[in-house]
Here is the input.
Amino acid sequence: MKVVATAPSNIALIKYMGKTDTLDNLPANSSLSWTLESLRSTVEMEYVEGLSADEWAPLDGEKLELSETGRAKFLKHVARVKAEAGVTGNFRVRSANNFPSDCGIASSASSFAALTKACYQIFEALDTNYQAPSVREQAEMSRKGSGSSCRSFFAPWAMWTREGVRPLELPVQRMVHQVAILNTAKKEVSSSDAHKRCVTSLLFKGRPQRAEERLAEFMQALRKNDWPRAFDITWAEFQDMHALFETSQPAFGYWHPDSVKVLALTREYWREQKDGPLVTMDAGANVHLLWRADQAAKAEAFGSHLAEDYRLLSTAADGAFKDSRA
Here is the structure.
């Protein structure tokens, strides 16, 4: 018996960085994300009679390869969900993404959300008396495997606080998303390790408070239709996060020379047009752009320019997905 589950990635505009509890992935500050419905992970989960232990493999026909550490983390989560649900028996887990992994597009978020969903789906398929927990409870369980994955259960906006995760109503409900793929090499410092190292930075003092203040200011900017202010806040926020990395002990960084080029292009676009996309980066080199639905023509023109030099993954406001290198 097997099931298939899928879940989207998400990109935080107000970042989760630093933990108050590393075992349960409890955040040092609240975060706010936009759900990337077109960038998804798929997990196939199969119950295999007599299997001696849970095992992982790439989904048939896919090239995804997890490191030994990545596999262990994935299967540890399966064991965690099984133990919580009182389920015995072992499973074969296969997974894949439709976008590059481990390079700053939050593949951990989408993959652990899909894995959590698959676990509960197969538990229900195997036992008709078993009832899966609510979506919010599933999100909280997923968080224990990958903190940011809890936000992938809600769309288009999700807010995660120390009290839990929930969808958030904001005036902007449709946006164009673009991510310029500037470096697909697997990160030398994982996101999990980045959380541990960033607290050693002298800049971490006051970081949770800065993030909470930016969250309140960002929500207010959207509610007041103040897009330039929203841009300023998200720009400062991702710069703040990457400054933590560059000043940690030992210091590390994710930026690629092309990251600087794309950021300079977007800043120049704002200077000339007095309008433009929200800009952010995750723990990686790639640059995310979010445009209002009424900016679709501008997004198309700017994206075409970027696609001359870089691979660009784009999702239109109506959900249409495009890979410039496809």
